[in-house]
Design a protein that fits this description.
Layout lengths: L10 H13 L2 H20 L6 E10 L6 E11 L12 E3 L4 H8 L3 E3 L2 H7 L10 E9 L2 E10 L7 H13 L10 E2 L5
Antiparallel strand pairs: 1-2, 1-6, 2-3, 4-5, 5-6, 6-7
Helix pairs in contact: 1-2, 2-5
Length: 188
């Protein structure tokens, strides 16, 4: 398997990313950009389509105090057993999920084995997940959501793969309107 440096992205990805962002009408921009990001993530993280689920979540603030109480899956893409499951499924998740934990702590979380998932997140149930890595989508001192990648293989997320996901989380900032970002201290 050819390894691509996590710090070097393919020029065609950058061209596709910039074209999706600059050439899409406002209402379709997020969808167009996320499609480019998710396709590239899938091709680099699971080139043989053994089975991963990539999810982008968005923080859901409470209206009473403008704090974050949950996250919502807004986009996803899967391979293997998740190929037909991820595309258009909305799901709300609380602090008991890896995505919710990442938003509340603003730190990535790595779950290497099913036993670790069950121990750290006992109320979180996800069929077929053997390992998972979630990373916050940050902009300065603000957060918009997370990028969460699950695998059907234990201990799948090497340092190389974790770094790739961190880079794509940084690109994912462009999916969100500036009003979607929430100050850290408002995360509960």
């Amino acid at each position: 398997m050819m390894m691509i440096s996590p710090l070097r992205f393919l020029p065609r990805f950058m061209i596709g990313f910039l074209e999706a962002y600059t050439e899409s009408i406002t209402i379709l921009r997020s969808s167009a950009v996320s499609t480019v990001i998710l396709q590239q993530m899938q091709s680099q993280l699971d080139p043989y389509e053994q089975g991963i689920a990539i999810t982008i979540t968005q923080c859901i603030p409470s209206f009473s105090r403008w704090t974050i109480r949950s996250v919502r899956r807004i986009m996803g893409r899967g391979t293997g057993i998740w190929v037909n499951y991820m595309a258009h499924r909305t799901q709300f998740m609380g602090i008991e999920s890896p995505a919710g934990h990442v938003v509340s702590t603003q730190c990535p979380v790595i779950l290497r084995m099913p036993e670790e998932i069950a121990e750290r997140f006992p109320w979180y149930r996800s069929t077929h997940v053997q390992s998972e890595f979630a990373c916050p989508i940050l902009q300065g001192d603000m957060i918009a959501g997370s990028v969460d990648v699950a695998s059907g293989c234990p201990d799948y997320f090497t340092e190389h793969r974790q770094e790739l996901i961190r880079r794509y989380a940084a690109y994912s900032c462009w999916l969100f309107h500036k009003m979607s970002f929430i100050l850290y201290n408002r995360c509960k």
